[in-house]
Amino acid sequence: MPARLLSIVLGICLFASVAQAAQPPQGLKRYEGRYYVINTDLAGDDLREADLRMTKMAEEYKKRTEGFAGTIGHKFPFFLFRDLDDYHAAGGMKGTAGVFNPNTDTLMAVAGEKTSAYTWSVVQHEGFHQFARAVIGGELPIWVNEGMAEYFGDGIFTGDGFITGYINPKRLALVKENLEQKKFKPIKEMMLLTHAEWNQQMSQENYDQAWTMVQFLAHAENGKYQGAFVKFMRAIATGQQWDAAWLNSFGSAEGFERKWTDYWMKMDEDPTAHLYARAVTETITGVLGRATAQKQKFESFDQLAQSAKANEVRIDNRDWLPPRLINSAFARAAKMQEDGAKFEVLPAQGGRLPMVLCTMKDGTKVTGKFIVSGGRVAKVTTEAPLRR
Q: Which candidate among 30, 79, 286, 295 keeps its CA 20 to 30 Å from the CA of 387?
């Protein structure tokens, strides 16, 4: 069982049976973020990254659920520990890296010596449970709650936001194998699972299936089912029984199962490579935008990459980005170039700011743009890919 899944599984088992978590240790410093009250013993860049990520994470939850969620009415409590023993003392079960305790509305995670992609994937998953309880409301079916948490857990952070909907090719291969070998439950059986039954039947297959169902509803057939999904979630939020809400929104489970199976079995090996390219391009565009706001100019992508590697890109302190994120983005771009992609910096022209252009090996083009206001980067976007 993958480490992140094991962490999530154990965390759910813990708070399914514990009425109250242990009290967090004394001595943690308290920081007021935009959406979270962060209690932590982290400092420096680790603390700044935590604050930035948690802010963008809450905004991504809100953006992706705006059709059926309420408003964020209070700041969420978040405890982030450097030391594993402190995390355990606060109630975190051994073998986990993060957990949401619904009894205390508390999100907790352990960073270890340094935070990593694993740390934040767990936080993004568990953080959704906290958000859903406070902002969506209603009694979410367990497959929806866990499927959406997995969806956000796989989101790629860019520094200015998240790219969601990414499908890891290795996970896709496992999904196809499970479908072929009929390891997934019939859709109707999955929809009828209670929270208690989910905990009793805890398995990677359940998490993968829940994630595939949410991914399908969010993205299949160019978003064809998004409206019905919003209708379904609104009905739940107003107290309607979810099985009736499903029937009114989608019709029979059997019809859904046929379309869902076909959707996954017909996928290419790497169906969201363009989303990965968008994430890399968006991060690099954010770096270029910050440098441009500081009057720095680059004649080529290689010059920008070399400046980033030498830590010579000028960034206003108010527009700070985690150095690890910057280094990772350029390393990913280098790997993509080795595999046949091309990155360019398109110079400013006719009042237009410079842009980043990624041409993928299949000819798909992803363009990164930014807006500067008041000497800071106000917005970073990547245009929808144009396929050759």
A: 286
